[in-house]
Specification:
The chain is of the alpha/beta class. Helix content is 35%, strand content 27%. The protein has two domains: 25-155, Alpha-Beta Plaits (2-Layer Sandwich), CATH 3.30.70; 165-333, Rossmann fold (3-Layer(aba) Sandwich), CATH 3.40.50. Mean pLDDT is 86; it is low at 1-17.
Length: 334
C-alpha cells in the first residue's frame, strides 16, 4: 500500500468540519479472540459495511483493530446502543472470549462513524492475552484512565527498552507537506539506529476516506523519557484516528517541502484538526531555512500553538540530515 495519499482531505460526512462534541458519552473498550478464517483485511471491510449502517442508526462511533489474533473495539455513544452492540458481538462467530477492558463516562474522542486498523507485529495471541489481563488488573486499581490511554497501552505498547515503564513518554505526530517524506525519514532513522518500525494500516468508513498507513518508532535515547514518533499520511487527518489520539501528542511535526502553497495547506489542515479536538501541541516546522518561513510561524502562533523551527542548514538535505535537525527540537520539548 502506498503512503502517498490524495491531496483532497474533505469528506462527505456531515460533521467533516465540526468540532468533537463536549458532552459526555458512554465509552467502552473490549477485546475478543479473533476466529476469522481467511484474509483479515477482507473481513474488516465486511464488518465496516455492516457497522456503518447499524452503528450510525444507534448513535455509535467505533474504532476496530485487529492485532496479534485479537479484535479490540473502542465504542462511544448511548449506553443502550453500546450494550446492544456487545450482545451482537457475543453472538458473532468471528469473536470468542469477549473481555471488557474499559468502561467510563466522559468526553468523546472518536470523530467518525467507523475506523478500522490492522497492526503488523511479531506478538502472538498468548502474549497479547497476558498484556490484556495485566491491563484489566491495572484498570481496577487505577481509576480515571482515558479510553485513548487504555487503547494505546493495549494496542501500541512501548518498546521494552523505553526509559519509563507504562507508556508514559511524549509522542510526536509527523506529516510531510508533499510526497511520503515523513515515512521515509522514519524508516531511515529505524535503519540507522536498528530500531523496530511498527507498521499500521487504517481504513475509514466511506469511499472518500481510503486506506492509509501510519507507522511509529520508539526512540529511548531521545529526551529523558524517550519519544515515540508517528508518521501519518495527510489523508489520515480526514479519517478520525488522528483526531482520537491528537490530544495525547506533545508535538506535531510538519516536514515542509519546496512548494509554499502545499506547506501552508498542510499547516492549515493540522491547525484545523487541533481546533476540532481543542488541543494545542508544540508545532514543529521541519525543513530548510527557505521552506520553514516566518509566515508559517505566524499562522501557527495566531491560533495559539507554540512554534518551534527545526532548521537544516543544507539546501538539499537527505532524510538523516532532517533527523539531525529534528532530534534536538524533540529533546528541547522533553
Amino acid at each position: 500500500m502506498s503512503s502517498i495519499d490524495p491531496e483532497n482531505t474533505a469528506t462527505h460526512w456531515p460533521d467533516s468540519g465540526s468540532e468533537v462534541p463536549l458532552q459526555a458519552v458512554s465509552r467502552l473498550i473490549y477485546a475478543s479472540l479473533s476466529k476469522v478464517d481467511g484474509p483479515v483485511l477482507d473481513e474488516m471491510r465486511r464488518i465496516r459495511d455492516h457497522a456503518v449502517v447499524h452503528n450510525d442508526a444507534a448513535g455509535l462511533r467505533v474504532a476496530l483493530l485487529h492485532m496479534s489474533g485479537w479484535f479490540v473495539e473502542w465504542i462511544e455513544g448511548p449506553e443502550a446502543g453500546i450494550r446492544a452492540l456487545l450482545d451482537r458481538v457475543a453472538q458473532d462467530p468471528r469473536h470468542q472470549g469477549l473481555q471488557v477492558v474499559h468502561h467510563s463516562l466522559g468526553r468523546p474522542r472518536l470523530f467518525r462513524p467507523w475506523i478500522g486498523a490492522i497492526v503488523q507485529g511479531d506478538e502472538g495471541p498468548t502474549a497479547f492475552a497476558r498484556r490484556l489481563f495485566a491491563l484489566q488488573d491495572r484498570q481496577v486499581r487505577q481509576a480515571g484512565l482515558e479510553p485513548s490511554s487504555v487503547w494505546l497501552r493495549l494496542c501500541s505498547p512501548p518498546a521494552p527498552d523505553m526509559p519509563v515503564p507504562g507508556g508514559t513518554f511524549p509522542r510526536a505526530m509527523m506529516l510531510s507537506a508533499q510526497g511520503a517524506q515523513a515515512f521515509e525519514l522514519l524508516q531511515a532513522v529505524a535503519g540507522q539506529q536498528r530500531r523496530p518500525l511498527v507498521r499500521r494500516r487504517f481504513a475509514g468508513a466511506a469511499s472518500d476516506a481510503r486506506d492509509v498507513e501510519s507507522d511509529y518508532l520508539d526512540l529511548p535515547a531521545v529526551g529523558t523519557a524517550g519519544w515515540r514518533v508517528i508518521a501519518n499520511a495527510r489523508k489520515g487527518l480526514a479519517m478520525g484516528m488522528a483526531h482520537a489520539f491528537l490530544p495525547d501528542h506533545a508535538a506535531v511535526v510538519v516536514l515542509m517541502g519546496d512548494d509554499p502553497e502545499r506547506n501552508q495547506l498542510v499547516t492549515e489542515r493540522v491547525l484545523a484538526a487541533c481546533r476540532q479536538v481543542h488541543h494545542a501541541p508544540v508545532f514543529i516546522g521541519l525543513g530548510t531555512h527557505e521552506h520553514v518561513t516566518p509566515a508559517l510561524q505566524e499562522l501557527v502562533e495566531r491560533q495559539g500553538l507554540p512554534w518551534l523551527a527545526a532548521l537544516c542548514p543544507l539546501r538539499r538535505p537527505d532524510t538523516l540530515d532532517l533527523w539531525a535537525a529534528l532530534q534536538p527540537a524533540l529533546e528541547q520539548i522533553g
